[in-house]
Amino acid sequence: MYDFRPWMLKRSETICNFCGDGCQMTVQRKDEDLIEVNSTLGAGRNDGDLCARGYFGYHANVHPDRLQNPLIRQADGSFAEVTWEDALERVAENFSQIKAAHGAGAIGGLITARCTNEELYAFQKFMRGVVGTPHVDSSARYGYINGVKALQRVQGTYRWTVMFEDIVEADVVLLVGTSITEANPITGLKVKQAVKKCGAKLITLETAVPAFSTVSNITTLATHHLTVLPGCFDVAVLGLIKSLVEQNLVDERTSEKATEFARIIIAEVEKISWQEIQQAVGLSSDQFHSASRTLSQAQRLVVLAGQGVLRDIGGEGIVTNLLDLLILSGHHGTQGSGLGVLAEENNEQGAIEMGVVAEYLPGPSKANNDTAQTTLSKIWGMSVPTTPGATMVEMFDRARQGSLKAMFIVGENPLESLPPDAKVSESLDALEFIVCQELYMTETAKKAHVVLPASSAVEKDGTFTNTEGHVQPVRKSIEPLGESQPDWEIFSALSVLMDSPMEYGEVKEIFKEIRGLIPQYGLLGPMAIAHVATADVVEQYLREGFKEDVHVRYALTKKISAHDGALTLVLGQSMYHSGKFSTRSKGLTQIQDSGVLSLNPEDATRIGVEEGASVRLSNGNGVVTVPVKLVDRIPPGVAWFPEHFDRELRLLFRVTVDERNHVPCWKTTQVRVDRVP
């Protein structure tokens, strides 16, 4: 009658690997079969709460399509299973030959931010120390890098100066481009708790509009909601700052302490007219005035910025302006107030801190920092590259140009993360040698010469760092499937074959090495520890640092407006999925297994379509037909589609690369929408 009794199950406490919230969960297994996931009330940063992905997404780790053996591409293009020895020797031999013929700079590395801190650290150590290349990057490049750089620039810390508890205890919470319920659902619960239980006032600068339905919508709780279309968050933030200035709400202490800072920013926003702002975002000065008055009256103000900001052109500048808003309102550096940038993937913060981006070494320290280079060389016993590294976008460019000959791609799938316009396929085809270390045979892995099977998050130990900067232990629940191995063990084995061994007996040894480089990684516990802004850095920013690009950040950029009946097509995150990984979970695909275009009923009436009908999306890049559903929370003029099922729709988009941080931006485009007869 029963498949198992409760006492027959073994339990492991670990951390969810779907988003940046870093929720603790309990994985239950019988033998080597995953049975269920649950949580304990009051446990972890999530207080025992879990979203649908946390509860039902675990099957993605053990899907039947998992890679379980090393593969080598044959002459006819097919893949053959080989032993680990053969696969690793092939990789080591090719990397060594390419390095000897073209230099270490002819090899690049790209890794997903879903790996553990230990694996991220070991990867960049392998690439920089063993291979000798400076070209190392990760999926933090898709936008999170913008937020971290702004934090470090203004306040000298690359982490939040607030914690989840500060969200709950805030008087006012400001959300800017977060889609928080879908992207960071447990952080969203903290916001709801602040509003519903603690009486906080909520200001939302979001694309979704207040509408009650079976799906939660954070904007329905807002004291002040300002509907901001994708790509216009920079203008909306300028509107808030201008309103603060015009109503004489700039903090007197800021005006006295940072006179020139306040004077120049006031002068910049005075150049912008309300008519220009309203034309760009469709919002009146009265809407901004009421929101800024509420904001200025707060004792404790928490600002959260999400993917709508981080993945936009000039994302670092928008986050910097939000920090300016905190400074001007007198909230920056005060108890319980601060800004948090929300990570989409579970360990994007860890990726930055482990130095898995071109600009940073572990710490993070700037890659051109002589002291950091010397320290790493001493600890590793290997020389560290001193030349600048190429970012992900630059590596693909160099591949097409012929200067990059090989890539080591771990857990990343750029062919499905970027549209055809990015020319990733052409870049990969131009490479002489590609190694993919993966859970599945992705579209990118299909182009590899060697495919190495990695272990999933439930099959290994390590740590994740959540979006607020809290380091938490990840514990193995089941043994690795087939012959798959944890990523760090593969890097270690390759280093031995390349005559620069970085041997570790267990993952704890890597963590110990990390602790020696980054002191704050020495503390693990149930509570996060908020960082404190560095006074000298803040002072320098207020005195000189802000001038570097103030005219650019406070310029009203020209926006592309819809015309001839076109709509703004947005690719966004669903509540039930995270990237493409979760689409392999049977528990989640039973809820949502395909994409449907969401339209506002007004637009649907104008186009002449009803629920369940199909429409044709077209622009200069292509034509795609998709089914439609009517959703009140989608504002008129916008069409929304889940990015997890965007395989066909990607051809409609073009990539624009942010000049400052080389973030590839492409999640919005203009399309004509026509009814399919």
Protein model, in words:
By secondary structure, the protein is α/β, with parallel strands linked by helices. It has 25 helices and 27 strands. The protein has a seven-stranded mixed sheet, sandwiched between helices. A hairpin with a 5-residue loop joins strand 18 and strand 19. Helix 2 (84-102) packs across helix 20 and helix 3 crosses helix 21. The model has no long low-confidence stretch (mean pLDDT 94).
Categorize the overall geometry: globular
How many strand elements? 27
Beta-strand residue percentage:
15-25%
What structural class do the secondary elements suggest? alpha/beta
Q: Give me the side-by-side strand order of the main sheet.
A: 5-4-17-16-15-6-7
Q: Into which percent range does the helicity of residues fall?
A: 25-40%
The DSSP helix count reads 25
What's the story with the biggest beta sheet?
Answer: 7 strands, mixed
Cα gyration radius (Å): 25 Å
Query: How far apart lie the N and C ends?
Result: 53 Å
Mean pLDDT: 94
Low-pLDDT stretches are none
Write a brief structural summary.
With 677 residues, the protein is of the alpha/beta class. It is 33% helix and 18% strand.
Task: Offer a few descriptive terms.
677 residues; alpha/beta; 27 strands; globular
Strand and helix layout:
Layout (H helix, E strand, L loop, with lengths): L9 E6 L8 E7 L2 E6 L13 H5 L14 E3 L5 E3 L2 H19 L4 E5 L5 H15 L4 E3 L5 H12 L8 H5 L3 E5 L3 H4 L1 H12 L4 E6 L17 E4 L5 H14 L5 H6 L1 H12 L3 H8 L3 H12 L4 E5 L1 H4 L4 H14 L9 E4 L6 H6 L6 E2 L3 E2 L3 H11 L11 H10 L4 E5 L3 H4 L6 H7 L2 E6 L11 E4 L8 E4 L5 E4 L12 H11 L9 H11 L17 H9 L6 H4 L13 E6 L13 H4 L7 E3 L1 H7 L6 E6 L2 E9 L7 E5 L13 E2 L6 E2 L2 E8 L2
